[in-house]
């Protein structure tokens, strides 16, 4: 099957491409390389283009005869979404509509959507199930919730079947250190902690230490990026034999606080990781932990790498092997 991976040169997208290749699929990546890295792609076809340009999208569907879509391309930083909501609504919704328009034109009926636990907002109950009330507390979460509604409308009108996967916190790197997490600027907790361990940062900033949690810092549910990518393949296969749209959480059901992650990282790296406590960051819920029973029972998903120590160890291995990240960001040749 020829599968289009939007944002396939990004952190999660590049792991997705690798897993598709391992499973015998033919991945096609479209990425504008503003956030992604050409060097992160281990194979498949690549087109340097933008979902904001509908002609780019139409060209890719026509040239590669796309049969299904895994849609990652989006802006994904909570704090930035609060300060720059216009960019988030354009990139996550308008550009997504371009993708859906060409899917309708081309008769492509299968889409796996990279959603987020941000659709739930502040939790009323931990762990959170898929039927938890939705009340996003930031523009990023709003865009994910809105696009899920858009997908439901497109299923009713055009027969597009979809599975929306609501991630908690993707982290880690491929075992062996081939692909890892490299953002500029970096905002995710584990790579920032590892930058401090490697001496690239003086200290870690903890955004809020007065939350209603055991140590006062935010609690998050971390899932290994390889487990996450494998869940997408199960979702694609599920669509193939059921043609049933649905939504699933992706997490482990266990949360760790910021201070706990720092402590475990110090143990794994053997490095001192200083931190400073500053004010809360707008749009951050105090705790987010998944109930992922549904995807385990219905799709047979079982995370293999999502023990927190494995997550941090694989991430540290990648950062140790790639102290400068992916270096040649200017390379953008199609192939």
Provide a brief overview of the structure.
This protein is of the alpha/beta class and 335 residues long. It has helices spanning 11-22, 54-64, 78-83, 85-106, 139-158, 189-197, 225-242, 258-269, 293-299, 308-321, and strands spanning 2-6, 26-31, 45-48, 68-71, 110-116, 161-167, 169-171, 204-207, 219-224, 246-250, 255-257, 275-278, 287-288.
Q: Tags for this entry?
A:
disordered C terminus; Rossmann fold; alpha/beta; four-stranded mixed sheet
Tell me the CATH topology: Rossmann fold
Tell me the total number of β-strands: 13
Multimerization status? single chain
Number of helices: 10
Mean pLDDT: 94
Number of domains: 1
In sequence order, what are the helices and strands, one letter per element?
EHEEHEHHEHEEHEEHEEHEEHH
- Structure class: alpha/beta
Largest sheet: 7 strands, parallel
**Beta-strand residue percentage:** 15-25%
CATH architecture: 3-Layer(aba) Sandwich
Please give a structural write-up.
- The chain has 335 residues and is α/β, with parallel strands linked by helices.
- It has a single domain (2-321), classed as Rossmann fold, CATH 3.40.50.
- It is built from ten helices and 13 strands.
- Strands 3-2-1-4-5-6-10 form a seven-stranded parallel beta sheet, with helices on both faces.
- Strand 1 (2-6), helix 1 and strand 2 (26-31) form a beta-alpha-beta unit.
- Helix 6 runs parallel beside helix 8.
- The longest helix has 22 residues, at 85-106.
- It starts with a strand and ends in a 14-residue tail after the last helix.
- The model is unreliable at 328-335 (pLDDT under 50).
